[in-house]
Write a structure and sequence with these properties.
single chain; 454 residues; alpha+beta; six-stranded mixed β-sheet; six-stranded antiparallel β-sheet; globular
C-alpha cells in the first residue's frame, strides 16, 4: 500500500506531540488529532498540547547511573522536542528533571501549532480508514468510542489499571517553622538543586496516627466496571501503601534517610513528607508520592495533620482515573503496527510503557518507523542495549504477552552485564554501553531532518 500522503497522529499528549514533530522534521506532512476541548477528560484541565496531568517530574536526569536519565540522553541525541523543551522550562528538583507544567505545555503547543507541516484537527477520532497511515498515541485516557474501535480491530481484551494524581499545595500556605529545604543526600549540582525539596518531618506518634487516618479516611467509590482493575505498582495510592503495612510508607515515599533537620539536628525524623516545586516560581509544591483516591474532604482533613501543612491551601487535590493499555506483545509487530491492520501504529503509554519520558520515546520511534515506511523501508529495531531499545523490546517481544504489565525504563530491561560487583560501577557500565550502541545505531539508520534531528 502506498502511503505517500499525510500521516495521522491521534492524541496531543507527549507521545503524540513528539511523534508529530519528528515526522514534520523529517519533511513529511502530519495531521495531529486532539479531541480537547471539544471532548474533555476528567484529568485534563486545559486545551493545551502535552499537558502534564500527573506529576511535573521527568524523574532523574542522571545519565551515568540512572536508566531514565540515560533514556533522556538518548532522546536528546535525536533532538527530542519533549526533553529539549523540558530542560528549557526546568525547575529545581535535586537530581531530577522537573518542569514548569504551564510554560512547558504552552511552548509545545506554540511549536506544534506554528510548524508549517503540521495540521491540528480538534475533533474526536472514532474510526480509522484502512487507507490512512495512523499513529494512535491517545495514552491512558483514550475515548470510549476510539477504544471500542480498537477492540473491534484487535479482537483482544484490553488491560486496565488505576493511576492516581498527587495534590498540589500553594507554597505560601505552608508553615516553614516546621520544615526545612534539602534534597535527599544533598544531591544536585547547584545550591538550588540541593535545597529543591521542602521536608515535613514526623515523629513516631505522628506517623502512626497519620497511617491510621489514611486507612480509615473516606475513599472514592468505584463504578462496577472499575472494581477489578489492578493498580500499577509504580503509582500506588498512598492509602493503598498504608494498608500494606504500617511501615510501608517509611520505606517508600516517606523514608527519612539522607535527610537531617537543621532546626533539630540531634533528632532523627521518624518519617518525612517531601514537597517538590511544581513551577519555576516555586509558588506551587507537589506532594511527592502522595497520589491518592481519598475523597477531597478526607484529603484536606488528613493532609493538614502533616507538620507544616496545618493551614495548607490546595491548588489541586489528588484524584484517580482508569488507565488503559493494550497487550502490545500480542498485538504489535516490531514496527509497532497492529498485526492484523498494519496501517495503524501505536505509541506512548497506551503501548504499556509507563512515564512521561518513556511515552515520548516510543512516540519518537513510531514516527521514524512511519516515515521510513512511506519510503518503502523498515526501521531497524533499536539495540536492546540502549534504553529506547529495551523499551521497544519490552512492548514487542511475544514472550512477554502472558505477563505483560506497564513498565518504566530500568536496567533490568537491558541485557545483563556480568562480573561487576559494585552496583554503581555496573550502572555506569550499562549507560556507557548504551551510549556507544545508540550513537552507532543513529549513525547507521541515516535519518536526516530539516532541523538536524537524528
Amino acid at each position: 500500500m502506498n502511503f505517500d500522503t499525510k500521516i495521522n497522529v491521534i492524541g496531543g499528549g507527549l507521545a503524540g506531540c513528539e511523534a508529530a514533530w519528528q515526522i514534520a522534521s523529517l519533511g513529511k506532512k502530519v495531521v495531529l488529532h486532539e479531541m480537547r476541548p471539544l471532548v474533555k477528560t476528567f484529568a485534563h484541565q486545559t486545551a493545551d498540547l502535552a499537558e502534564l496531568v500527573c506529576s511535573n517530574s521527568f524523574r532523574s536526569n542522571d545519565h551515568k547511573y540512572n536508566a531514565v536519565g540515560q533514556l533522556q540522553w538518548e532522546m536528546l541525541q535525536a533532538n527530542s522536542l519533549i526533553i529539549r523543551t523540558g530542560q528549557k522550562h526546568s525547575v529545581a528538583a535535586g537530581s531530577a528533571l522537573a518542569v514548569d507544567r504551564v510554560k512547558f505545555s504552552n511552548e509545545i503547543t506554540k511549536i506544534i501549532t506554528e510548524h508549517h507541516l503540521i495540521e491540528i484537527n480538534r475533533n474526536e477520532v472514532t474510526t480509522i480508514p484502512d487507507s490512512e497511515m495512523t499513529i494512535i498515541a491517545t495514552g491512558p485516557l483514550t475515548s470510549t468510542k476510539l477504544s471500542k474501535f480498537i477492540l473491534s480491530k484487535t479482537k483482544k481484551d484490553d488491560l486496565a489499571f488505576f493511576d492516581a494524581i498527587a495534590p498540589i499545595i500553594y507554597a505560601d500556605s505552608i508553615n516553614e517553622e516546621y520544615t526545612w529545604r534539602q534534597s535527599r543526600y544533598d544531591k544536585g549540582e547547584t545550591a538550588e538543586d540541593r535545597t529543591a525539596y521542602l521536608n515535613c518531618p514526623m515523629d513516631e506518634d505522628e506517623y502512626y496516627n497519620f497511617i491510621e487516618n489514611l486507612k480509615s479516611g473516606s475513599k472514592i467509590e468505584f463504578k462496577e466496571w472499575e472494581k477489578n482493575t489492578p493498580y500499577f505498582n509504580g503509582c500506588l495510592p498512598i492509602e493503598i501503601m498504608a494498608e500494606r503495612g504500617k511501615d510501608t510508607l517509611r520505606f517508600g515515599p516517606m523514608k527519612p534517610v539522607g535527610l537531617s533537620n537543621p532546626k533539630d539536628p540531634k533528632k532523627k525524623p521518624f518519617a518525612v513528607v517531601q514537597l517538590r516545586k511544581e513551577n519555576k516560581l516555586g509558588t506551587l509544591l507537589n506532594m511527592v508520592g502522595f497520589q491518592t483516591k481519598l475523597t477531597h474532604s478526607a484529603q484536606v482533613k488528613i493532609f493538614r495533620q502533616i507538620p507544616g501543612l496545618q493551614n495548607a491551601k490546595f491548588a489541586r487535590l489528588g484524584g484517580i482515573h482508569r488507565n488503559t493499555f493494550i497487550n502490545s506483545p500480542k498485538l504489535l509487530d516490531k514496527q509497532l503496527r497492529l498485526v492484523n491492520q498494519n496501517n495503524i501504529r501505536f505509541a506512548g503509554q497506551i503501548t504499556g510503557v509507563e512515564g512521561y519520558v518513556e511515552s515520548a520515546a516510543i512516540g519518537m520511534v513510531s514516527a521514524w518507523m512511519a516515515v521510513l515506511e512511506t519510503q518503502g523501508k523498515n526501521l531497524p529495531s533499536p539495540p536492546k542495549e540502549t534504553c529506547i531499545g529495551a523499551l521497544h523490546s519490552h512492548i514487542t517481544n511475544p514472550l512477554n504477552s502472558k505477563t505483560f504489565q506497564p513498565m518504566n525504563v530500568n536496567f533490568g530491561l537491558l541485557p545483563p552485564l556480568h562480573g561487576i560487583k559494585s552496583k554503581k560501577d555496573r550502572y555506569l557500565a550499562y549507560t556507557n554501553r548504551a551510549k556507544e550502541e545508540w550513537k552507532k545505531w543513529l549513525k547507521n539508520i541515516f535519518l536526516k531532518t530539516s532541523e538536524g534531528a537524528a
